[in-house]
TrEMBL record:
A motif (Histidine triad motif) lies at residues 96-100. Residues 5-112 form the HIT domain. This is Zinc-binding protein. One of its GO terms (molecular function) is catalytic activity.
Amino acid sequence: MSTCLFCKMVSGEIQPDIVYQNDFVLAFNDINPKAPVHVLIIPKQHIETLNELTDAGLAGQLFSAAPIIAKQLGLSENGYRLVVNCNKHGGQEVYHLHIHLLGGRQMTWPPG
Ligand code: 5GP
Ligand code: ZN
């Protein structure tokens, strides 16, 4: 059995607040939201960081889920932000690849 937190969500051992899924990706609300909408989009397959993402098809699945979820949550017109934190300098805390989808407020740039 996997010890990875997000793999446990994929297997159903832990039940996140799911907002979208298909055969390849799972998307759920972040437990500690940094914006009114904060969804994490993950591959169902365990991939540690963006550095290990070599499957362009899966990259497409992850990336193309974002506008579907944004539309579902009413973010398309005002907009939203996608973030991928990679390794230490990127601020990654959970070592199962994920895209942060943030929306519902004005974002600032550059990030800290
Ligand atoms: P990272 O810093 O790795 O890019 O982001 C990890 C994200 O996972 C953080 O935003 C954090 O709030 C979220 N997170 C950590 N543990 C849990 C959890 O048990 N459930 C959910 N839904 N999100 C989590
Ligand atoms: Zn995992």
